[in-house]
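About this split. The held-out portion is used to measure sequence recovery: a designer receives only the structure tokens and must propose an amino acid at every position. Recovery is the fraction of positions where the proposal matches the reference. Here is one held-out target exactly as it appears in the evaluation file.
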């Protein structure tokens, strides 16, 4: 987007100045929020002393992210701040003003100094204080200059140009920055993205990255702020758009707001809201079984408002299921003909939660999925269903390999097929190591869709959703969403089963608009329900009986929160 802007004839150094000036304004506001208001009420004298002594320590690298940093230092100094630039990776001569002027004069008339160099020169000409951060070996406590205590620490070491693990002096600088901000309880603000975090993937090389309280994100949200480690390092994100941007250029769309649900028609009955068939909850001979997976899934199907549900699970669990969900009808998972008849009647089939992984379970999976395809039903495939799909894909000799996967692909062209792996399951589906998937989740979800067809969720922090849009002309177009809500309390057993239930439950309700039944809406609703259980904000209009907190949140707590969020987003008419 930046390059397109420059190609239209806009000045790149002008943009850098604009970026830095706007960031300086935000920094002043953030300072006020953190220090002045709190101290003004606690101690008037402290308030006054600090109000005239704002101090910022700005850590700059040698690229344009560092250029932003030099200019921020310049603008804050202009505004009366005491500033110190910590220059990382700079040789002494890089900072020698006379020497730099000499070089600048030698530069060919047609050549221009880089933006970062110009920024540095502006700051040095304004006599901004600076200090080189030198390689100290392993003893960071001896580093000079960084002990200068500031109210705000700014990370302008690396932005989107980071392409390898920070080593040596850079690694030391990041670790020293984190230490000094944490021990001073000072505000850590990252320019564009916390240094060490990869903008396109959210990966942290070698576990070292700036731990920011706030990230001032320039031009467009970086994908890496929202998936993998991104949320753990970036703190709250403030957008500084700078230039008009086109979302059609984005790798993904960040979603945080659910599509409104229409109210139900008075003149309706249970058949108006669909019949979901849940197939799972098996008990393999000699094992304790996995009835809970199907039970949790079934409960959330009904919490989203589906009209009817049948659960095909092992008979051993029928009693437990009916105790928790008397609304359900049941059938034995192994009653092949009975289940196939029900597939005909169902509006959506969801399969895999606790289905089991042995050969018998695989045979059930193949036969039920094929029946659903023959009957042209929307399908949700989760957990052990994904396991079988991966086994078929990997197996060289299985007679159903090409058949089932090809049929599924074909089916997904005209009917909704939703597949919902976490990283481990995606790794197996792609026959890759889990860290390969984790390190580039965006690529992984695209590869899943290319291999198997259908719509996908790649679960985890910042769940990704890929939806295939069937186009008027031949073919389809994939669109990717990043779920910007949800919390770590949801990292517990059974949450995935709940999600598969939400997906099936919404798909079944044909009275809802397509936008309210699509996969990213289900993922969002599930995450918002998780947040409603831990978040005490106005948005959720509590009902404090709903609050649980992250630690101890269980999948079985979700249905009540799902209903609460559905109420919040339903149009009243
Ligand atoms: N007008 C503008 O130019 C604007 C720029 N903005 C800001 O610019 C950054 C992106 O700047 P860029 O220079 O492309 O990249 P970085 O500053 O992030 O990184 C600079 C170089 O650092 C090297 N590098 C990468 N990884 C490492 C590492 N682990 N250790 C050491 N060095 C590393 C790499 O160069 P090499 O030649 O050494 O490979 C990088 O190129 C953007 O994020 C904004 O903050 C604003 O958008 C305003 C307009
Ligand atoms: K940065």
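Reference sequence for scoring:
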């Amino acid at each position: 987007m930046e390059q397109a802007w420059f190609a239209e004839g806009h000045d790149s150094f002008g943009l850098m100045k604009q970026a830095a000036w706007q960031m300086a304004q935000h920094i002043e506001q953030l300072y006020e929020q953190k220090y002045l208001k709190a101290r003004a009420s606690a101690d008037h004298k402290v308030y006054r002393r600090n109000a005239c002594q704002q101090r910022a320590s700005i850590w700059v690298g040698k690229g344009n992210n560092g250029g932003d940093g030099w200019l921020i230092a310049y603008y804050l100094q202009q505004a009366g701040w005491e500033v110190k630039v910590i220059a990382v990776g700079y040789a002494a001569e890089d900072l020698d003003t006379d020497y730099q002027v000499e070089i600048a004069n030698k530069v060919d008339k047609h050549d221009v100094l880089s933006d970062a160099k110009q920024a540095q020169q502006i700051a040095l000409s304004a006599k901004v204080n600076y200090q080189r951060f030198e390689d100290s070996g392993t003893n960071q406590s001896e580093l000079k200059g960084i002990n200068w205590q500031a109210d705000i620490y700014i990370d302008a070491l690396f932005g989107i140009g980071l392409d390898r693990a920070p080593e040596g002096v850079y690694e030391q600088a990041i670790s020293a920055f984190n230490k000094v901000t944490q021990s001073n309880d000072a505000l850590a603000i990252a320019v564009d993205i916390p240094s060490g975090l990869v903008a396109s993937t959210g990966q942290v090389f070698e576990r070292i990255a700036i731990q920011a309280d706030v990230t001032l994100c320039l031009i467009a949200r970086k994908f890496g702020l929202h998936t993998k480690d991104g949320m753990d390092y970036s703190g709250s994100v403030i957008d500084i758009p700078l230039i008009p941007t086109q979302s059609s250029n984005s790798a993904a769309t960040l979603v945080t707001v659910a599509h409104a649900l229409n109210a139900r028609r008075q003149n309706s009955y249970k058949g108006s809201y669909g019949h979901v068939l849940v197939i799972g909850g098996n008990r393999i001979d000699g094992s304790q079984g996995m009835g809970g997976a199907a039970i949790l899934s079934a409960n959330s199907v009904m919490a989203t408002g589906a009209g009817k549900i049948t659960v095909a699970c092992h008979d051993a669990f029928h009693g437990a299921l009916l105790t928790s969900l008397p609304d359900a009808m049941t059938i034995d998972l192994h009653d092949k003909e009975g289940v196939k008849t029900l597939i005909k009647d169902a509006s959506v089939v969801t399969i895999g939660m606790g289905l089991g992984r042995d050969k018998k379970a695989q045979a059930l999976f193949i036969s039920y999925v094929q029946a659903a395809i023959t009957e042209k039903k929307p399908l949700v495939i989760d957990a052990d269903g994904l396991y079988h799909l991966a086994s078929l894909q990997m197996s060289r000799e299985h007679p159903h390999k090409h058949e089932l996967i090809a049929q599924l692909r074909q089916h997904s062209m005209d009917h909704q097929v939703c597949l919902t792996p976490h990283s481990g399951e995606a790794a197996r589906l792609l026959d890759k190591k889990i860290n390969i998937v984790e390190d580039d989740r965006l690529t992984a979800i695209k590869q899943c869709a290319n291999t198997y067809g259908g719509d996908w969720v790649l679960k985890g922090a910042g769940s990704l959703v890929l939806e295939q849009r069937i186009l008027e002309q031949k073919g389809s177009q994939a669109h990717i969403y990043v779920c910007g809500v949800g919390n770590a309390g949801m990292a517990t057993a059974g949450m995935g089963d709940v999600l598969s239930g939400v997906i099936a439950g919404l798909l079944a309700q044909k009275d809802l608009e397509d936008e309210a039944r699509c996969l990213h809406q289900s993922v969002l609703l599930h995450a918002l329900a998780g947040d409603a259980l831990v978040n005490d904000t106005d948005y959720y209009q509590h009902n404090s009986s709903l609050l649980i907190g992250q630690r101890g949140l269980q999948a079985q707590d979700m249905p009540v929160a799902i209903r609460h969020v559905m109420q919040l987003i339903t149009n009243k008419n």
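Annotator remark: The pocket of LZDS7PUF (ligand 1) is lined by residues 2, 12, 15-16, 19, 61, 63-66, 68, 115, 158-166, 170, 191-192, 218-219 (CB under 6 Å).
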